[in-house]
Amino acid sequence: MITAVLAGLVAGYGIAIPVGAVAAYLITLGAAHGFPTAAAGGLGAATVDALYALVAVVLGAALAPLIMTVATPLRWLSALVLVGVAVWMIMAGLRPDVDGGQPPDAPSPRRAFTTVFLITLVNPATVVYFAALVGGSTVGFDRVPEATAFVVAAGAASASWQLVLAGAGAGLSRVLTGQVARRWTGVVGALAVLTLAGWTLLAA
Q1: Model pTM?
Q2: Residue 54 pLDDT > 90
Q3: Which of 109, 141, 160, 177 could form a disulfide with 40 if both were Cys (CB 3.0 to 4.6 A apart)?
Q4: Which parts of the chain span the membrane according to its record (predicted)?
């Protein structure tokens, strides 16, 4: 059981820590809209990581070759979603603030959760990573308690890192105050997401 938990923690941090579209978007959310919104987005990413960990445990290494056969369409889909998110971030950042200090279409925590959930869901590297990890591991997950421990630990590890990113963005918001700063934060975050979309296409 302890081995399964440790394997899950390593898997969760291994997929969550590398810088990507989710990290850039969460930091931008935190800087522009505060910790609660960014934290909801982070939990969206962690939910997908936990779901993919579950799929990987159930299907194992047999899933990786199947995903690789559709890897190129998945990368194009991922890139299109990232471009859409980047365009929305730019448009939201350039709109004038309302009296409360937030742009009129500031994302709610629920929308942030859904958006980040979808961004993470269409990332083909996530499920391939978990499938390869479980398939090549010496840890046996044929028992339900061990498999459950692995999935829960992976999701918890991912969630803890996403919350760190949300907190970092929220901390940045204390330095970047005012309408102009929020606009530049959104634009810079959008450019980072566009860059990652281009990188995704080049990998296709």
Answers
A1: 0.76
A2: no
A3: 109
A4: 6-29, 50-68, 74-94, 115-135, 147-172, 184-202
Whether the CB-CB separation of 81 and 122 falls below 8 Å is answered with yes
3-state secondary structure at position 114:
helix
Question: How many Å separate Cα 140 from the centre of its chain?
Answer: 28
What's residue 39's pLDDT? 96
User: How many domains is the chain built from?
Assistant: 1
Query: H helices within the chain, ranges in order?
Result: 2-16, 21-33, 35-59, 63-69, 71-94, 109-121, 124-135, 144-175, 179-202
For 19, the 3-state DSSP assignment is coil
> Cα–Cα distance between 188 and 203 in angstroms, integer?
23
Structure token pair of residue 26: 């969460």
pLDDT value of residue 138: 44
Domain that holds residue 25: 2-202
Could you tell me if 48 and 124 are in contact, meaning their C-beta atoms sit under 8 angstroms apart? no
Pairwise CA distance, residues 146 & 58, whole Å:
12
